[in-house]
């Protein structure tokens, strides 16, 4: 539906606001009769700050005039005659008004269309809150820009009113001085002869009475002007606060949430430059309104007139100071978080940024930022404004940095490049909590002033939770704590509270995000993969995904309690898979060569229906970071019987000696990758080329090859002579220990 049709259906205050958009500068009749044409023009494509776009604006003005003239020519009948004259008059009027500066026409029309759209949207949301449009990013951005345009117009309007008030007050003071002069003349008449005194006194009294009456009326007018201006400032500040809520409490919080999920492998948070542009616009408009209010205060002090305006101005001053303070403290953010698994005695970096620093000229006296590590309890006390006595929970080296202004990007930031955690002070742990479940945070704080020391700010911001480790062996469990916190923490929480249990689908989303990021693959975890993980986590045998949709998994099940019959947790097993994949098997996963998430029985059921020599790759159930080859072949001990064999799992250590592709190539009884791909098609391009040339001082370089000490009825089961071989035991039922034998070169 066309915007103008919807705008005509507005009611009450919204209709009044819409009608107030029009006047001599742009008659409502022009909007009505050219509605379709106006809404079809590319007003948004013109940058009002770019004088080079004035030519485009000129063409739009000419088009508007032509459309008005064309519309006027087509009017018929008695009513049409009057309308024809009126539209022709509007065409001449608009051309005269905007021909010297066509960009002003664009500004005017953009403001009208933006405001109408906002009013229609608000009315639509109010009438049907459950059926509003999807909150898409472009629409949100458009609404924010519309509000900024409205704020600009309101601020310009109060500026014009303030100048009018100032001129009126200056004239009032001149007339008041004249009144005092007349009074002084009357006082000096006593020295004159009676006849002359009477004659002059009558004239002076008449002038005095007239002037005093005017001063009384004008004082009331000035008071009215002040009252109206204060009320306009109230409305402007209310809209500024609302806009600030959208940008700081919605958009910036969403950015921080995206930053947190990026720690789990989510997409890059992005969008910070847009947020800075919005925050700078807010700061600019807040500061303009603050200066206007201070000028009104000065005028009031210069000419006190009893009334409610003084109290209003006090409230306005407090409100605008509160708004600017909230903006400054909220926009001191961490652009680049410190690592969330933080190892002592290891260098790390972080970057903090003040989004409104450039606009408020904070860089003219560059502030210093200090970094301190504090505990979860200290973070709680800090947010409650309790006295923490400048306590810290450790010592960070190189923890002071001066904020720098970058002219090209317009950013004010501090880059901590060589921080190092020298020591950490741990608190008493609760129950079964381990050191890798204890959370800390890096506190960044600074102090600076704006507006020539008018306002002094002490700003603080906390990093995402960090887990401190002293040895690489703790990294696995620390990562689990970080993943759970990043995935399931709620906005505005008490530091650093997380739910003890979550729905299984929620954890699936977090695991899939982490897996895709670490393996650097677009191929995530399939529904079958997630069912396998659910079976492992819950010790369940159900293959139905819906059975797990409403199940919850606790933190203890995730990474505190060992899996049944194992000496490792669910997360430790999953993290082992991630480490194996990202170090050695990324390419094979991306090719789809690794099914991975299968148990032994599933592999057997899948392979028994396939020809001998068919194999698949699955992750080991019994060993962290292990992958095994399962294949179907004849039972060498019983003719005519087929069975599935499972090779003892390979780990990262094995693949650092010989790659998976080379090992599969070595085993001649492996013919087809499940379901039916010849193994050469899948793995040959990853195999190491044979090396038969002499190297060094005439020596031949030996080769290590994979063999299985079981005879299978498949072609060429034995390796060809002339190479070194590594024997690798296998069993149809259990995984045995490795048996390695290196044969010398022949």
TrEMBL record:
Keywords: Activator, Cytoplasm, DNA-binding, Nucleus, Phosphoprotein, SH2 domain, Transcription, Transcription regulation. InterPro entries: p53-like_TF_DNA-bd_sf (IPR008967), SH2 (IPR000980), SH2_dom_sf (IPR036860), STAT (IPR001217), STAT5_CC (IPR046994), STAT5a/5b_DBD (IPR035858), STAT_linker (IPR048988), STAT_N_sf (IPR036535). GO terms for molecular function: DNA binding; DNA-binding transcription factor activity. Residues 589-690 form the SH2 domain. CDD domains: STAT5_CCD, STAT5_DBD. It is found in: Cytoplasm; Nucleus. GO terms for biological process: anatomical structure morphogenesis; cell surface receptor signaling pathway; epithelium development. It holds the Pfam family STAT_bind. PROSITE patterns: SH2. GO terms for cellular component: cytosol; nucleus. Belongs to the transcription factor STAT family. This is Signal transducer and activator of transcription. It comes from Cyprinus carpio carpio.
């Amino acid at each position: 539906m066309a915007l103008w049709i919807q705008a005509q259906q507005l009611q009450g205050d919204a209709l009044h606001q819409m009608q107030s958009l029009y006047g001599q500068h742009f008659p409502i009749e022009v909007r009505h009769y050219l509605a379709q044409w106006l809404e079809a023009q590319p007003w948004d494509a013109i940058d009002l700050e770019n004088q080079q776009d004035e030519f485009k604006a000129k063409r739009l003005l000419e088009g508007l005039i032509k459309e008005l003239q064309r519309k006027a020519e087509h009017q018929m009948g008695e009513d049409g005659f009057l309308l024809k004259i009126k539209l022709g008059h509007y065409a001449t009027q608009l051309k005269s008004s905007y021909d010297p500066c066509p960009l002003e026409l664009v500004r005017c029309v953009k403001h009208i269309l933006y405001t109408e759209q906002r009013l229609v949207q608000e009315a639509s949301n109010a009438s049907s809150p459950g059926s509003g449009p999807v909150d898409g990013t472009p629409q949100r951005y458009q609404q924010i820009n519309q509000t900024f345009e409205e704020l600009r117009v309101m601020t310009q309007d109060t500026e014009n009113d303030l100048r009018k008030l100032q001129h009126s007050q200056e004239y009032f003071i001149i007339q008041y001085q004249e009144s005092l002069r007349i009074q002084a003349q009357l006082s000096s008449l006593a020295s004159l002869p009676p006849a002359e005194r009477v004659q002059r006194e009558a004239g002076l009294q008449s002038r005095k009475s007239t002037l005093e009456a005017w001063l009384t009326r004008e004082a009331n007018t000035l008071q009215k002007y002040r009252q109206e201006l204060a009320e306009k400032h109230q409305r402007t500040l209310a809209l500024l606060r609302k806009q600030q809520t959208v940008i700081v409490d919605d958009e910036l919080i969403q950015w921080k949430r995206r930053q947190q999920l990026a720690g789990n492998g989510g997409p890059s948070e992005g969008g910070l430059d847009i947020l800075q542009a919005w925050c700078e616009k807010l700061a600019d408009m807040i500061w303009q309104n603050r200066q206007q209010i201070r000028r009104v205060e000065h005028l009031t002090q210069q000419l006190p007139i009893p009334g409610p305006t003084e109290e209003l101005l006090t409230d306005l001053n407090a409100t605008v100071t509160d708004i600017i303070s909230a903006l400054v403290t909220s926009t001191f953010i961490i652009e680049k978080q410190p690592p969330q698994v933080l190892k002592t005695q290891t260098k790390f970096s972080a970057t903090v940024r003040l989004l409104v620093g450039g606009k408020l000229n904070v860089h003219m006296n560059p502030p210093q930022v200090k970094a301190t590590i504090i505990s979860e309890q200290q973070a709680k006390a800090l947010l409650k404004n309790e006295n923490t006595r400048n306590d810290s929970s450790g010592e960070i080296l190189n923890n002071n940095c001066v904020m720098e202004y970058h002219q090209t990007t317009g950013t004010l930031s501090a880059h901590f490049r060589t921080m190092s955690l020298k020591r950490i002070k741990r608190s008493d742990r609760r129950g079964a909590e381990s050191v890798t479940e204890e959370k800390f945070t890096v506190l960044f704080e600074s102090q600076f002033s704006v507006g020539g020391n008018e306002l002094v700010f002490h700003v603080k911001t906390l990093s995402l939770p960090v887990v401190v480790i002293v040895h690489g062996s703790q990294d696995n469990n620390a990562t689990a704590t970080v993943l759970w916190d990043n995935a399931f923490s709620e906005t505005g929480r008490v530091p650093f509270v997380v739910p003890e249990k979550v729905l299984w689908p929620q954890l699936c989303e977090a695991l899939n995000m982490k897996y895709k990021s670490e393996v650097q693959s677009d191929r995530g975890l399939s529904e079958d993969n997630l069912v396998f993980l659910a079976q492992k986590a819950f010790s369940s045998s159900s293959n139905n995904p819906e059975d797990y949709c409403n199940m919850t998994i606790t933190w203890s099940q995730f990474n505190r309690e060992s899996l049944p019959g194992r000496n490792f947790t669910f997360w430790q097993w999953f993290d082992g898979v991630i480490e194996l994949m990202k170090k050695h098997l990324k390419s094979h996963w991306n090719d789809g060569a690794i099914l991975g998430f299968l148990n032994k029985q599933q592999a057997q059921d899948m392979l028994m229906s396939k020809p001998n020599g068919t194999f698949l790759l699955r992750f080991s159930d019994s060993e962290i970071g292990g992958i095994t080859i399962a294949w179907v072949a004849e039972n060498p001990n019983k003719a005519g019987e087929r069975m599935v064999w499972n090779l003892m799992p390979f780990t990262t250590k094995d693949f650092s000696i010989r790659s998976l592709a080379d090992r599969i190539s070595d085993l001649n009884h492996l013919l087809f990758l499940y379901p039916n791909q010849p193994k050469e098609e899948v793995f040959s391009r990853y195999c190491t080329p044979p090396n038969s040339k002499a190297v060094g001082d005439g020596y031949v370089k030996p080769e290590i090859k994979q063999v299985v000490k079981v005879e299978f009825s498949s072609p060429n089961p034995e390796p060809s002579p002339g190479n070194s071989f590594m024997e690798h035991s296998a069993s149809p039922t259990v995984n045995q220990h490795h048996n390695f034998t290196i044969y010398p070169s022949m």
